[in-house]
Amino acid sequence: MTGLIALTGATGFIGRHLLADLTARGYRVRVLLRRPTSVPEGAASAVVGDLTRPINMAAALSGVDAVVHSAGLAHANLGPTPSGAPEDDYRTLNTEATRKLAEAAARAKVRRFVFLSSIRAQVGASAPGVVGEGDPPRPTDAYGRSKLEAERALAETGLDWVALRPVLVYGAGVKGNMAALLRLARSPYPLPLGGLAARRSLISLESLSGAVDAALAAPGPLNRALIAADPDPLSLPEMIASLRQGLGRGPGLVPVPAGLIKLACRLTGRDAQFARVAEGLVARADGLAALGWRPAGPTRDGLARLARDGG
Q1: Which domains does the chain carry?
Q2: pLDDT tens digits for 197-253?
Q3: Where is each NAD-dependent epimerase/dehydratase domain found (predicted)?
Q4: Whole-model pTM?
Q5: Are 141 and 124 in contact (CB under 8 A)?
Q6: What is the structure's pLDDT at 56?
Q7: Whole-angstrom distance between the N-terminal and C-terminal Cα of the chain?
């Protein structure tokens, strides 16, 4: 489909890329901004308003065919939450803001609502086996619970909705754990990470944009959550090796037992970061594949390109 898309979060890491990609695919994009700012390049128009107090949503959604909602409070590893009370802040900014926007979209008779949720709505920082869409959701923290509650709020609106649950997203401008990995790869020293064998699924910004396009274009009602993950999970040593390949260097990895690294991380207060990157979380995007979605390219190549282009 092509038409007018209302996009939230257009100034964020994912939203900036979605704006450029959706525009390139022929969509007209109206960005919904939280505060007055210059209209991002590529936007057809802009409306300013606070999603937690959506007083001008009727104007914002007038003539809109679909909403792509990528705004929200990111995971706590990116910094403290606004009030210092994660459960309350995540509920306000992720759950209730999504509910209010969706209710306004229903009143405006928007055709489809695409919500950028998270794999954390389904599982914790790591998971045994392969995570599939048929598995019951079991979020383990306030962030994941807020995303799952937002999905359930969508289901109550009567809208045709889809929630995309991306795994760790990488691409230009990445922050958080992937940015930390990129810094590690750029270091000139050998790294004691060669013994870590657990694999994790990743998804590139390009693949995620393709998933959003597939969700927008799919015929018929969707009304479900879909995992968004590239199909080739990598271990942490493979990620580092791919990044260093992009830098024109060898892997430079030393095989130290995983238990020793985990102990060192626990003693230095970094056990949570270790779990988010080094422990296993493999997910399958079967639902998206059934809609015709295909990844933008191999994860190894994408990581090499990320490092080569400067991150």
Answers
A1: 4-171+203-229+283-293 (3.40.50.720)
A2: 999 999 999 999 999 999 999 998 999 999 999 999 999 999 999 999 999 999 999
A3: 5-218
A4: 0.90
A5: yes
A6: 66
A7: 32
